[in-house]
Amino acid sequence: MPIRISIKLLCSRFFVSLLFLGAVCALPAQARTPQSVALAQDAAVSSAFSPEGDALALVIQAIDQAHSSIHMAAYLLTSSEVARALVQAKKRGVAVQVLLDWKGNFDEDARYARHAIGILRNAGIAVRSIDAYAIFHDKYMVIDRRTVQTGSFNYTYSAAHRNAENVLVVWNAPGLAARYLADWQRNWDLGRPVQLPY
Fold this sequence. Notes:
Layout lengths: L6 H26 L11 E7 L3 H11 L4 E6 L5 H12 L3 E7 H5 L4 H12 L3 E5 L8 E5 L3 E5 L5 H5 L3 E7 L2 H17 L1 E2 L5
């Protein structure tokens, strides 16, 4: 026995379904839309690569030039050089906050990360971990709300001395820094404070 459905009812339900689907699909699309940011006339860009050694030097230079704040987002942090530079920044009065991937830094095999994170926590630096994603794979710092350091470089010995990596620093770019800082803050709010001992 054939099923009878009114064409008017079918079209009405189809139209409502399309509206609902369009609204649902539009939300993520809007969130994923790339946005350009105009750079200030006095903005500058520095780049460096590893394993030649200058990638780590550029990361440290960016940290050393901080005056007021450093917001770090990192998949991995095992580099004691980076940890010590962050501690020195804090000693200069810079507000330092570090957000790390939980799985990459706190599982049972993460002894080098635990050492570097211990350096930060013992200095009173705020550290949070995040496990809201399969991997929190970010690698950037927002410095003084106007400079962004980013690239493929994890803050690790391997990134500095073994891997082919890149570092990019965009100096004096408050518009770009604001976009990165908004992303950082959203993820920071999802994180959990890391206490000692951990």
